[in-house]
């Protein structure tokens, strides 16, 4: 199950052409998302009268999934006075992008297109604001106490950030401790006001419960009790989105299984068979996952490695060789570059074994470790491993993953073919915390495994092992 984060989008336009010489347009932006090839309206902004460069106050709340290509379409309409509907509105143009592009760039400006052509100098800029959490909606009896905490926003409005459990029939309740992100609680500002019974900051350890009605009616009324904060601890835990929001760029690395269990590439039954007109299973998996990850990689240069093959010139087995055979520069230009390097590589190597993936995890972890110890630490590493079956270095792989869980790094393992992938499910950690052979647990779940046959049937959605946190970095929000 994918972890859902929410993002807030605000929209601005500039350079909108006037409707005629006497009046400026009355713009409105409609946000649509694509699902199963169709565009569906998500929400729309307010109408701003007589403006060629509107900045809309409407905020679009969109659930964000790293594992999906979420295609957005921003349509600009000119709404005539007295009519807020789109039926009689003039369509001024649209721009399309993915939510991943906005998240990775924070602010994206693209020209308006109308019937495939640029609509003059007009452009739309969707901007990423802050993350949000969905508030709860339940209400309970006043006779059984519970506590609600609201964040006071910059505009004076209040947002519910937490509601405790209800303690039945108790005038001196002790509520259970709870966790809430610092970003949700106070937008990272320790001095931001909160509202419990009155406005406080979370740094205060106690405050009075005041009932305004009792203040008016009862002369000797002081308060309805005290709320005491028994314990507050700030723990830095970073998710994938925290790194991206903190300015990190993705370094996307591909590792391909060239062991003999895949079958002779010259045989049509081989998972590595190069069909003259159709991609094999490895190419399908590479393109499907690469399409998602490439939005976050600024230079679109992807290191590509192979493992489990005998490679020239001496034909010794290697578990981390450059697919383009340039060990000093294993990067390929885009996903298509990886595809071409893979196709050129196959005739030159001999599929062999065993299926060891610890070396390639350690190679990428070494780069992530170097990045983590720089002052800026501006890269997050994602390793995509494409493999056909059971790994043979399970203990070393577990050790490598536990070590990598302390780094700005995630591992996606895509199982190609119909082999037994039981070991991969263990590495995934969904059924329990993964531990090294010495018993050390992973700091966070950084591995996600998916059989490609399932991935294809659900429309190309997968969950990336990017949850949890990494200590020692100063990016993103903190979690309490």
TrEMBL record:
What the entry lists under CDD domains is as follows: C2A_Copine, C2B_Copine
Keywords on record: Calcium, Metal-binding, Repeat
Q: Which GO terms describe its biological process?
A: cellular response to calcium ion
PROSITE patterns, per the entry: C2 (PS50004)
Q: Which Gene Ontology molecular-function terms are recorded? A: calcium-dependent phospholipid binding; metal ion binding
Q: Which GO terms describe its cellular component?
A: plasma membrane
Q: What's one Pfam family the UniProt record gives for this protein?
A: Copine
Domain C2, chain residue ranges per copy: 1-112
Q: Which InterPro entries match?
A: C2_dom (IPR000008), C2_domain_sf (IPR035892), C2B_Copine (IPR037768), Copine (IPR045052), Copine_C (IPR010734), VWF_A (IPR002035), vWFA_dom_sf (IPR036465)
PANTHER family named in the record: COPINE, COPINE-4
What family classification does the UniProt entry report for this protein? Belongs to the copine family.
Q: What is this protein called?
A: Copine IVb
Organism, scientific name: Takifugu rubripes (Japanese pufferfish)
């Amino acid at each position: 199950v994918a972890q859902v984060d929410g993002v807030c989008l605000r929209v601005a336009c500039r350079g909108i052409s006037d409707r005629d010489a006497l009046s400026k347009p009355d713009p409105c932006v409609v946000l649509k998302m694509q699902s199963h090839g169709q565009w569906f309206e998500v929400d729309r902004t307010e109408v701003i009268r007589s403006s060629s460069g509107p900045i809309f106050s409407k905020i679009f709340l969109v659930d964000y999934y790293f594992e999906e290509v979420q295609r957005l379409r921003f349509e600009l309409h000119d709404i005539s006075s007295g009519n807020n509907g789109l039926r009689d509105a003039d369509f001024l143009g649209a721009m399309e992008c993915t939510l991943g592009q906005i998240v990775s760039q924070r602010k994206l400006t693209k020209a308006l297109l109308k019937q495939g052509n640029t609509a003059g100098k007009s452009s739309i800029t969707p901007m990423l604001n802050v993350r949000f959490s969905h508030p709860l909606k339940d209400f309970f009896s006043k006779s059984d106490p519970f506590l609600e905490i609201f964040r006071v926003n910059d505009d004076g409005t209040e947002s519910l950030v937490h509601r405790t459990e209800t303690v039945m029939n108790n005038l001196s309740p002790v509520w259970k401790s709870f966790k809430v992100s610092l970003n949700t609680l106070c937008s990272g500002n320790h001095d931001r006001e909160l509202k419990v019974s009155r406005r406080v900051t979370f740094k205060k350890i106690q405050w009075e419960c005041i009932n305004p009605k009792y203040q008016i009616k009862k002369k000797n009324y002081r308060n309805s009790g005290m709320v005491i904060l028994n314990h507050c601890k700030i723990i830095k835990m970073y998710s994938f989105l925290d790194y991206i929001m903190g300015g990190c760029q993705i370094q996307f690395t591909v590792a391909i299984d060239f062991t003999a269990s895949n079958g002779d590439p010259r045989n049509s039954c081989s998972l590595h068979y190069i069909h003259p007109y159709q991609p094999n299973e490895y190419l399908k998996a590479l393109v499907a996952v690469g399409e998602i990850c490439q939005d976050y990689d600024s230079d679109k240069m992807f290191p590509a490695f192979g493992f489990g093959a005998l490679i020239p010139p001496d034909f010794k087995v290697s578990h981390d060789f450059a697919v383009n055979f340039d060990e000093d520069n294993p990067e390929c230009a885009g996903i298509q570059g990886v595809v071409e390097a893979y196709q050129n590589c196959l005739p030159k190597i001999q599929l062999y074994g065993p299926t060891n993936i610890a070396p390639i995890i350690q190679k990428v972890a070494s780069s992530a470790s170097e990045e983590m110890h720089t002052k800026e630490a501006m890269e997050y590493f994602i390793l995509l491993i494409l493999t056909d079956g059971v790994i043979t270095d399970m203990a070393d792989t577990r050790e490598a993953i536990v070590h990598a869980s302390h780094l700005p790094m995630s591992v996606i393992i895509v199982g190609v073919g119909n082999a037994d992938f039981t070991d991969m499910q263990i590495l995934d950690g969904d059924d329990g915390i993964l531990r090294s052979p010495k018993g050390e647990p992973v700091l966070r779940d950084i591995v996600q495994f998916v059989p490609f046959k399932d991935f294809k049937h659900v429309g190309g959605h997968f969950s990336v092992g990017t949850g949890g946190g990494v200590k020692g970095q100063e990016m993103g929000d903190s979690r309490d």
